[in-house]
Design a protein that fits this description.
Helices cover 47% and strands 13% of the residues. The chain is of the alpha/beta class and 291 residues long.
Length: 291
């Protein structure tokens, strides 16, 4: 249902508040570049430091700005099942096309707890859901057997896999139905995952270079593997530098250097340190993204 390049959008701030004009401009820039979908209020969107009112407002703005031209998959996850249901119901009412839900963090549920968490959200919302597996942020890993169980629930249509383990992703693909979308949560693994049957990527890098990411995926799909590989290696330095500090610290800095939005980021995240900023500028210039 969801495939290709979906951009995990940043949330731009100005003077401590959401910069709504900048957010709308970012949406337009993404759509003009040919992106396949937008994902507001994920980790890249600093959802952890958005109030509930801000979270809802960001989803509403992105849905309104997209105007049905591409799917909007709203981040609605929480370590509270009840809260995740409330956020998902709001996204559905706001006109989003689906929801992305991080696996419960801090609580460290068992595999059965993870399964029941998603099953209850699916039952309570009747909305297309993407599971988000990112053990580095949640302290738990959704195992392939659990994802296979979740894939049997009609509302659960795919997974954003950010375990970093390509063998685990391959097992997920092997165990799940063909129409279950396995999407990379790591930009540097987008092409390898496509090669073993993945459907695309929920991308951080496409905030900065959407056309390049779209071009790589389309080259692969058209059978032009040499061009897909060339695009992968052209983008690899960007993938690396955008994660030299915690996401979205380098990404916010990159977008500010490009004039796409301000550099403001919320504590406890901090501005990019100078040696990394210099490296970021070099990479952006090499890709023709800075003058």
């Amino acid at each position: 249902m969801f495939e290709g390049v979906l951009t995990a959008l940043v949330t731009p701030f100005r003077d401590g508040a959401i910069d709504e004009a900048a957010l709308r401009n970012l949406v337009e820039r993404q759509i003009e570049a040919g992106i396949d979908g937008l994902v507001p209020c994920g980790s890249t969107g600093e959802s952890a430091t958005l109030s509930h009112a801000e979270h809802r407002r960001v989803v509403e703005i992105v849905v309104q700005a997209a105007r049905g031209r591409v799917p909007v998959v709203a981040g609605t996850g929480s370590n509270s099942t009840r809260e995740a249901i409330e956020l998902t119901r709001h996204a559905k009412a706001a006109g989003a096309d689906g929801a992305l839900l991080i696996s419960p963090y801090y609580n460290k549920p068992t595999q059965e707890g993870i399964f029941l968490h998603y099953a209850e959200i699916a039952r309570a919302t009747s909305f297309p859901l993407l599971v988000y597996n990112i053990p580095g942020r949640t302290a738990s890993n959704i195992l392939p057997a659990t994802l296979a169980r979740l894939a049997d629930i009609p509302q659960i249509v795919g997974v954003k896999e950010a375990s970093g383990d390509l063998a685990q992703m391959a097992e997920v693909i092997a165990r799940c139905p063909d129409d279950f979308s396995v999407l990379s949560g790591d930009d540097s693994l987008a092409l390898p995952l496509l090669a073993i049957g993945g459907r695309g990527v929920i991308s951080t890098c496409s905030n900065v270079a959407p056309s390049a990411l779209v071009g790589m995926v389309r080259a692969f799909r058209s059978g032009d593997l040499p061009e897909a590989r060339r695009a992968h290696y052209r983008l690899l330095p960007l993938c690396q530098v955008l994660f030299c500090e915690t996401n979205p610290i380098p990404l916010k800095a990159a977008l500010a250097l490009m004039g796409a939005c301000g550099p403001e980021i919320r504590l406890p995240l901090t501005p990019l340190v100078e040696p990394h900023r210099e490296r970021l500028q070099v990479v952006l210039k090499e890709l023709g993204l800075l003058g």
